[in-house]
Amino acid sequence: MKRILNSWLIIVFVLSIFAIASALFAEFVLDLTPCKMCLKQRHPYYLIILLIILFNFFKQTRNIWLYVFIQIFLIYGLFYSIWHIGIENKILSGPASCSGTLSQTDSIQNLKQQIANQAIVNCSEITWTIGGLSAATLNSLLLLLILFFNTMFILQYFYGSKKN
Questions:
Q1: pTM of the model
Q2: Is the C-alpha dihedral spanning 7, 25, 45, 135 positive or negative?
């Protein structure tokens, strides 16, 4: 555990790069068009990568705010990935632009507008799985793993060192 914590920032950076690279590979090489929820789930990784680069550039990699921001971004990502899992399993409804459903209307103009605003990919459709787990589920598991170890890092490094 101590070895992981000593290399934690590098691990988070590599996992974030891996997550983005996997998503881009699926999109551009496997030609799988992401839905709007899938695109939202990429935001935390982009932000974490950018944040680590910035803090590293200013030699502030042991600054508590770096790890707090990482926590916030991870929670943001978990919110969207868990919501996406709920949409895929028909437990939760998605945003109107992602659901692929039309609301009733008396206006042809309004109906045309709804059709024009429909998502290309419906968020409730699972386009691919690995071992029976959707991309949203795999993303949630990765985010939970990073969140757990980031919490351990914060507790160990910033609070555990004060006891000594």
A1: 0.81
A2: negative
